[in-house]
From TrEMBL:
GO molecular function: phosphatidylinositol transfer activity
Residue span(s) of domain Phosphatidylinositol transfer protein N-terminal: 3-247
Domain of life: Eukaryota
A Gene Ontology cellular-component term: cell periphery
Name of the protein in question: Phosphatidylinositol transfer protein N-terminal domain-containing protein
Source organism per UniProt: Juglans regia
SUPFAM superfamilies: Bet v1-like (SSF55961)
Amino acid sequence: MVHIKEFRIVMPVSLEEYRVAHMFVVMKMSQQHTTGEEGIEVVENRPFEDNALGKGRYTNKIYRLQSKIPSWLTTFAPADALIMQEESWNAFPICKSVMKCPYFPRFQLRIETVHRPDNGESENVHGLSEEQLAAREVEYIDIASSEGNYWSYLVGNNNVDFSIFKSARTGRGPLLEGWQDRCDPVMTTYKLVTIDAPYWGFGYQLEQALIAGEKALFLESHRNCFSWIDEWYGMTVQQICELEQQSHSALNEHIVLKSRNLASRC
């Protein structure tokens, strides 16, 4: 059964600020999660243009995060086989990502993202059909909240208290109850997650686990967006792109070096 869920994350930044913040956070979190023999390898990173999305940036990544695989899933496949491949098309303010696992060829996870300068009240920004709308679940994620569960432990746990946090460079914060209706600037990330894992015996469990994992990742990354605001504020997209290129090279070199060292010990 295909699972469709839309997450809405309101942010106390402008659209253009978020574009820089998101690029910065993806880069920094990729660095944090690339350790030992695990991490994120950037296979391809290039401009693209098509009729549906327009112009943007295409990336092809491989995620080797075996230690983060739920133990129950390793009963169906060895951890080393659970490597994820992600293709992304970033044509801000519209983005699309598709994740696949070669070991489970019928599995697919698709994330379609639309960014709007509002406080999360826009309906059907993804242009869904009546049938899709009937199947869709909507959940708001409040970055001022924090969750302590299995998935938040795996993706990271930003422990900044936004009820007292205040940006030194922008003066934004703290985020008190109802902040989404009062903040200026404001924008919302609308993330439509579609998962299809048509496997008898564990497909539904896998879909539920991935939905929970994506929610934890969305919360963590967007909490980082705001708590790291004094690091990225004032940077340009071009500056971030240059840092990305350096980061991608370093990540790939790290993965290759660790793989060679591991092979030499075998």
